[in-house]
Amino acid sequence: MEQGTEVRFLGQDPETGKSILVVPAPGGQLERIADIATLETASVLAALVGEILEDGTANEGELSAFVPALYEALCDVVRVTARLLDSD
Question: Measured between alpha carbons, how far is 87 from 27 in angstroms, rounded to an integer?
Answer without folding.
Answer: 9
